[in-house]
Amino acid sequence: MEHRLEIETMGKIKVVGPQKAYGEITISGSKNSALPILAATLLTDEEIILHNIPNLADVNTMIEILENAGKKVSWEESSLIIKAHSNINSVLPYGPVRRMRASFNVLGPLTIRNGYAKVALPGGCSIGVRPVNFHLEGLKKLGIESKIEHGFTHSKYTRTPEKVHVSLPFPSVGATEHLITTAVLLENTETIITNCAQEPEIVDLCNFLISMGARIEGHGTSNIKIYGVEKLYGTEYKIIPDRIEAGTYAILGAVLGEKIILNNVIEDHIFSLLDIFEKMGVNYKMEKNTLTIEGISRLELSPVDVETATFPGFPTDLQPQLMALLSLIPGRSSITENVFKTRFNHVDELNRMGAKIFVEGNTAIITGVTKLSGAPLEATDLRASAALLIASLIADGETIINNVDHIFRGYEKLFEKLEKMNLKIEYSE
Ligand code: EPZ
């Protein structure tokens, strides 16, 4: 099976709507768990086996980075076997890190392993400015000094503090993961991180690190304590399912109706979405790890006012997809984006299809319309691509989504899964 997905030229998707969805699929492993866990494998030279890893462009970018750092990585179905190939190399090429922000989290582990590191500064992306100041300020408290030169972060491990307290100005997912993955190998250092992120992916990362021998308490709460150890060991670990993939298909089901069944879904990870479904009157059933969405006419659904927030609040990564649904619900809905305040690139594209959405500050006001019509669209990022795909499947007529390859960064086996739900789309380079 070909695993490497390179995104050179941006492809496009052609969709003719409206279509109905009915069928059953299984949700893949979580992208946003796999990436920080893969970065953390740099903390040991022993063999690590990871299960339920999604075959995504971003995962392959992280594998490329690990191989540059001296790892040997091989796939077996949806498992990865990671071994030390040579001494850890902590000077990484510019390209892959620049390409994917999550890879910045290798900086701390590499600096601890080698005493220094040189890693590209990650770029922003179309969902908003994405500085790394919380990361660098926290690493500094852990004894790692950094300076930015020629687009690279040069870091040096200068001292081993005994006790460290980092209070994050905002519960950043990336900064929380980066600081935990660094503090675990600071022997005899006690680190407390307050106001940290509580996302399920943070808990998954900590459970993985604990299986390597790390000592961590409080993961899943806003205060995490880490007792640094001298050495971490090889392990075998299965990552959690992707709650954002599950939420995306659940919203698709609510828009396209009939009946879809999603297996491998953890209810606690998506209850903020189920809460919204309750308020709207979406007909869903959650049994064990299976979510069933049975369509009812959208005219019977109610508008809602939603705010995005850090977990356990409603995730910003489902905001564009929910907006596609709300654009077809009679009445006035609103979505306030509190995590990436300018994350509204999908609005103009949905309006191009006949939606009625306008943005005031960081709130989108949505007046429901009875139908959308197909149009030529531009996708700008991963979740916006998913939202435009959902809208194009319900719209009248033909839609072309250009620049759509972003979608392969976060949705594994997309065509296969859509086919299993009797949905037809055409992809071309
Ligand atoms: C993670 O990004 C996810 N990515 C994002 O998912 C997700 O949107 C985001 O968390 C929020 O849930 C991965 O897990 C790989 P943050 P991250 O640090 O860690 C500000 C997707 O579609 N901030 O929690 O980069 C920042 O600008 C992706 O799968 C600083 O100001 O997000 C933002 O406003 C997109 N300084 C807020 O915090 C910092 O040093 C939250 O960002 C760090 C963050």
Keywords summarizing the entry:
alpha+beta, four-stranded mixed beta sheet, UDP-n-acetylglucosamine1-carboxyvinyl-transferase, Chain, single chain, 429 residues, 23 strands
What is this entry, summarized?
By secondary structure, this protein is α+β, with helices and mostly antiparallel strands. It has 13 helices and 23 strands. Cell wall formation. Adds enolpyruvyl to UDP-N-acetylglucosamine.
Description of the molecule:
It holds the Pfam family EPSP_synthase. GO terms for molecular function: UDP-N-acetylglucosamine 1-carboxyvinyltransferase activity. The active site is at residue 125. The chain is of the alpha+beta class and 429 residues long. The radius of gyration is 22 Å and the shape is elongated. The model is unreliable at 1-8 (pLDDT under 50). Helices cover 31% and strands 26% of the residues. It contains 13 helices and 23 strands. Helix 6 (173-183) packs parallel to helix 7. It has helices at residues 31-40, 57-68, 94-99, 107-114, 133-141, 173-183, 200-211, 243-256, 267-280, 319-326, 345-352, 382-394, 414-420, and strands at 12-17, 22-26, 48-51, 71-76, 79-84, 116-120, 144-149, 152-157, 163-167, 190-194, 215-217, 223-227, 235-238, 259-263, 284-287, 290-294, 305-307, 332-336, 356-360, 363-367, 376-378, 397-402, 426-428. Strands 21-22-1-23 form a four-stranded mixed β-sheet, with helices on one face. It has two domains: 12-28 and 241-428, Enolpyruvate transferase domain (UDP-n-acetylglucosamine1-carboxyvinyl-transferase, Chain), CATH 3.65.10.10; 31-238, Enolpyruvate transferase domain (UDP-n-acetylglucosamine1-carboxyvinyl-transferase, Chain). Residues 31-32, 35, 101-102, 127, 129-135, 170, 172-175, 316-317, 339-340, 382-383, 410 line the site of ligand EPZ.
